[in-house]
């Protein structure tokens, strides 16, 4: 039932819940009437690469004995996860391009192909930028094996959408990360929630006065 | 030559072997065949995957080009092979055949596919109609002459045939009939619901699929909670017995310590 639920979640793009269910079922998978074990492992890797923390990714996916047995059958997907873990970003983007047809050829993943690819790009960029306070676009482009112009366009789109906490100094050709620390974000969150609460209380008091 | 060797058997008399039971009426399990895992092989989800790939390669709006298709190890004759599979006795699904024919861009395939004619598909549908009526007759016969389990078997046979060769609506209706059967065990209703979920998933109906899975959980939950309650009661009872034995063994001191620990 877990596999049924996981695939149903995957179909409705609840990838986080699907990832948790899929990784639970690796060792006990027997739903061959639903999908092959090879396909199941692909779903598990793709779903978990987005949501699993790096340490758990190593433990459950890269070093998982069940996944290692299937790894020779899915070289591209396995290369993707390995490249991300080893911070080999050029290899990661290469694998990402090669994974695209695999996602399209699968009926469960194809409707979410754009979303998954976008998330994987964000994941790669985020992991890279986490290590720096500022980095030149040229150096970053070299690491990812793409042109500076391409990276500039790509990064600016993610920054504008609020997916990456960074800003691009176009004049200096530098990407500066502005990681908001936990205390600051909690303070902002509290003020925001407090505002909402005050508004509701005012509305309620007005209603009571009437 | 010593007696008992392969050349000269020591017993010249014929060994008595029971004749294999030759029942005059074997149950027809052709369409309700269950695979080794205990699940019905229909609908074949690999076929759904293949149909999806065909629409991606040669659909009216193809997304995968042939170079990309070869990178995911799809053979060149993939589209043709899927049409052959749909017409083969393992599937024989004329409605699905017609649907795929509409989805595939024939002009791009340059006439490399020899489709079944509409007459052939009509003949196939007529065959299915007669098969369905024979299965319905079997259900009626089971209702009159046999017990509930035979009726249920006949209903499952019809539903599995519908999942294999008929349309989505017909298949879901057939499973719905099973679910409406009185005195249906939780195991059988779970089977019917999960197979219905597969039918819905086969045709890409996500909402219905989720609906069936949530129904499975409803069926499963009272059962699992019942088992859990029984197990926990058993454990509690067992612990009490062990506690009493320990108290007797350890004497007053042990009893005191146990009370303190509690």
Topology:
The complex is a heterodimer of chains A (210) and B (262).
Chain A: H1 2-11, H2 15-25, H3 37-51, H4 54-62, H5 65-70, H6 75-85, H7 89-104, H8 113-129, E1 134-136, H9 137-144, H10 148-160, E2 166-169, E3 174-177, H11 182-209
Antiparallel strand pairs in A: 1-3, 2-3
Chain B: H1 45-58, H2 66-71, H3 78-87, H4 94-103, H5 118-145, H6 148-165, H7 168-179, H8 186-202, H9 206-261
Given the helix and strand composition of chain A, which structural class is it? mainly alpha
* Shape label of chain A: globular
For the largest sheet of chain A, list the strands in their spatial order: 1-3-2
**Could you spell the SSE succession of chain B in H and E letters?**
HHHHHHHHH
- Uncertain ranges of chain A: none
Largest interface: A-B, 23 and 31 residues
Query: What count of helical segments of chain A does DSSP give?
Result: 11
Helix content of chain A: 55-70%
Integer average pLDDT of chain B: 70
Radius of gyration of chain A: 21 Å
Tally of separate helices of chain B: 9
What is the arithmetic mean of pLDDT of chain A? 88
**Roughly how many Å apart are the termini of chain B?**
80 Å
Q: What multimeric state do the chains show?
A: heterodimer
